[in-house]
Amino acid sequence: MAIGMRDTRQRRLVASALARFDDFRSAQDIHETLAAQGDHVGRATVYRTLRALSVAGDVDVIVRADGETVYRSCSPTHHHHLVCRTCGATVEIVGPVVERWSNQTAASHGYDEVSHTLEVFGRCSTCRARASEG
Predict the structure, then answer these.
(1) Where is the domain boundary, 74, 90, 121?
(2) Beta carbons of 37 and 84 less than 8 angstroms apart
(3) Global pTM?
(4) Is 75:92 a contact under the CB 8 Å cutoff?
(5) What string of DSSP letters covers 48-105?
(6) Are both 42 and 91 inside the same structural domain?
(7) Is there a single domain that holds both residue 2 and residue 66?
(8) Range of 123's domain?
(9) CATH of the domain at 64
(10) CB 129: neighbour CB atoms within 10 A?
């Protein structure tokens, strides 16, 4: 739990549920997972908790092409994501070329304190194989 964040039962449950998934999941998915295991956490609490975890840097957040915001437990180091747009499988990637490019571009325009996010969407080999079979 992030520093300054209250350690409540609901927050522990949301964080624990999210940690079980390797891919990005919606707040609704997390809420349904908790309900299925008998944990009563309100939908609004799930949304608030995910937002707080995101602000604290404990979860990654992306907005899918359909506009839905999804969340994933993340590693503590700076990284980007390669996401299958069919099944949602996710791989954390490190992009030193992206890091150099963003810093050089910012510096050439007089910017400092640079930050960025990068998500690369495609289709994983499993989904590609399924598509070619069917």
Answers:
(1) 74
(2) no
(3) 0.71
(4) yes
(5) HHHHHHHHTTSEEEEE-TTS-EEEEE--SS--EEEEETTT--EEEE--HHHHHHHHHH
(6) no
(7) yes
(8) 76-134
(9) 1.10.10.10
(10) 10
